[in-house]
Amino acid sequence: MKRGIGVFDSGVGGLTVFKALRKELPHEKLIYFGDTARVPYGTKTKESVTRFSLEIAKFLEKRGIKLLVVACNTASSLALNVLKRNLDIPVVGVIRPAVRAAAAATQTGTIGVIGTEATVASGAYQKALAAIASCDRIIARPCPLFVPLVEEGWWEGAVAKAVAHEYLAPLKRSKMDALILGCTHYPMLAPLLRSVLGKKIRLIDSGSETARDVRAALEADGRLKRSGRGSETFFVTDGAERVKRLARRFLGRRTSRVSVVRLP
Ligand code: DGL
Q1: Of 15, 53, 116, best ligand 1 pocket probe by most atoms within 8 Å of the beta carbon
Q2: The whole model's pTM is what?
Q3: Active-site residue, 72 included
């Protein structure tokens, strides 16, 4: 069996990470899993997110993946260690790559993080940032309304702008010069966030940073595919048609077949 890379998220947001992976790894077989029947994870407990994540990881493992990418920031915050302990393949989350990029970008030492309620409450980003020498102040804020705004396609305009102003006001008043977009959906709002925060603040997209880490991990153990056409498979737990519609927006192109599966 040809071994692919599994990528999972609570829903469609992880397609931002998938897009970055496709760009970085054009020859790989990518298998995306979106848990659309149970999304959002951002308001759920650690116990539930961990259970869901393990079920998905086992499903993907049975399909013969060589590496698992936890595209969901909430799952990366709450379940990464359990996943690593339970799988025999490398597991890459989105937190470490983003934190490293933020640490390299900051001059003032004040770094912002925005994400779901569960991601911010878990303290996972804050803990990882606190361990970095160039970071001396962390400002973390949940921005839950950004997710439905993105899924509605409201990436700009008066409503999205008002919400962004409200959420980002305390960060704007600080000395923050790097902001981690700690949720799969937020990179879609990058132009809006840039217009609200100004050009001096570096926006860190965990998707593209993670894709670079995945490439490095595969290169390091000699498992990077360097030729041949890459392929894609999509699994979701509900609503294939809606996923296809949203995927077109997230990826900027059509997807191949989306299959609905039941877990566990
Ligand atoms: N994918 C989730 C994340 O990155 C956002 C959506 C949700 O709450 O499930 O945290």
Answers
A1: 116
A2: 0.97
A3: yes
